[in-house]
Design brief:
45% helix; 7 strands; alpha/beta; five-stranded parallel beta sheet; binds zinc ion; Rossmann fold; two-stranded antiparallel ribbon
Length: 402
């Protein structure tokens, strides 16, 4: 990794482990550059292997019975909440909350970790979700610190989203502790669905010890703060120790002692994003992107809440050569909704499209000029993935038909 700025190099631990030779999956369109993904001897990625298990190996009736048993054990009939559902108002969390409440008789307390900057459609979907019959607690980070951390994260790990992800994972568990709720239900295991560590595929939920590696690029909020202080992007007067509470999970011992458990709804039910979309549209008033599709992809129903969403996906394209269209199309190939060659065409057409729509808001939020932004973007282009052709930067490898 090149040295960033004058002071420190990137602390995205994933970049050190990136294979230098690029291989694309023979079944879908994802490459081996995706962090933690693994390929078998036939050139098939771990997400496609998991999709095979979902289709032919896993006994979903048995998994459904496991979920019924779990709910029977933890359901409360004394007027208290019995499950926390981290919910944005998006299609996935809306589906999970609604099914737990109406098909399993649970009493969900839904919890939202607020986006950096709500989009209009994101705010509308959040409101519609709450109106569809859910109590919700929204956690909003210290706005001054949150902006600064987003900027530090952009420079330190090449992804503004990291401070959001800290809260998205940790905050629901703080709420669970406060209300003595034992179950926290997330949607899908993204490691299985989109490709990642095959060792996590059979897990009912993600153990807290694995969060930093799986979700935070190996970088905790303490690492970001240290990076920010050393580079001068952050100063001690920007935050108080208490402001960091929701960026950190409760300790593993406390969670164990209090029997507070992470569960993936996707462990118990076969996870199909398109079906979540139809379900949430019907039951939660969920609406797709009014622009017809999201920038960087052809799809219209995922990650709509935050003005910074597009930027997060764009940096995935820069760092790994894997953009938003690749992730969407690869999943749809696995679901049997697209052929591989259709997916290849969609990737060529949309992957890496720069998200312009909220650029001005995003730069103002990050307190950064566009020039500075491109400087950082270019520092995150690994030399084994990018080349200059006639002055223009191009990926060296693109997915192609077999
Ligand atoms: Zn694959």
């Amino acid at each position: 990794m090149q040295v960033l700025g004058k002071v420190r190099s990137s602390i995205d631990r994933q970049l050190e482990r990136q294979p230098k030779e690029v291989i694309f999956c023979k079944k879908c369109v994802v490459s081996n550059q995706r962090p933690r993904i693994q390929f078998d001897g036939n050139g098939v990625c771990s997400a496609c292997q998991y999709a095979y298990q979902k289709e032919y190996v896993i006994d979903w009736k048995e998994r459904e019975r496991e979920l019924r048993d779990l709910c029977d054990r933890y359901r409360r009939l004394d007027g208290r909440y019995d499950v926390v559902v981290p919910a944005s108002g998006g299609k996935d969390s809306g589906t999970v909350a609604h099914k737990l409440k109406h098909q399993y008789g649970m009493h969900p307390l839904t919890v939202t970790w607020a986006p950096f900057i709500y989009t209009q459609i994101g705010w509308r979907n959040y409101q519609n979700f709450v109106k569809s019959g859910f109590t919700n607690i929204m956690g909003v980070a210290n706005g001054h610190l949150h902006r600064k951390l987003a900027r530090v994260a952009f420079e330190a790990v090449g992804d503004v989203f990291v401070p959001f992800i800290y809260g998205q994972t940790s905050y629901p568990f703080h709420i669970a502790l406060q209300f003595d709720i034992k179950l926290v239900f997330f949607g899908e295991n993204s490691e299985g669905e989109y490709g990642g560590d095959p060792g996590t595929l059979g897990l009912v939920g993600m153990p807290v010890e694995k969060w930093a590696d799986q979700y935070y690029k190996g970088t905790t909020v303490e690492d970001l703060i240290e990076w920010g202080l050393e580079t001068g992007l952050l100063s001690k007067s920007d935050y108080d120790e208490s402001d960091l509470t929701f960026y950190k999970p409760p300790s593993a011992e406390v969670l164990r002692e209090r029997d507070i458990q992470w569960h993936f709804f996707g462990y118990y039910h076969k996870w199909i994003p398109q079906e979540c979309y139809y379900y949430a549209a019907e039951h939660n008033g969920f609406q797709a992107n009014p622009d017809g599709r999201s920038e960087g992809t052809y799809s219209k129903y995922a990650s709509l809440d935050d003005c910074l969403d597009g930027f997060h996906y764009y940096m995935g394209f820069i760092k790994f050569g894997i953009g938003r269209a690749t992730s969407d199309a690869a999943h749809e190939v696995r679901d049997g909704h697209l052929t591989r060659s259709e997916a290849v065409q969609l990737v060529h057409r949309y992957d890496g499209e720069f998200p312009k729509k909220y650029l001005r808001e995003s730069l103002a939020y990050l307190d950064m000029t566009e020039e500075k932004m491109w400087e950082i973007v270019d520092q995150y282009r690994p030399p084994h993935l990018w080349q200059k052709v006639n002055g223009a930067r191009q990926l060296k490898y693109k997915v192609s038909n077999l």
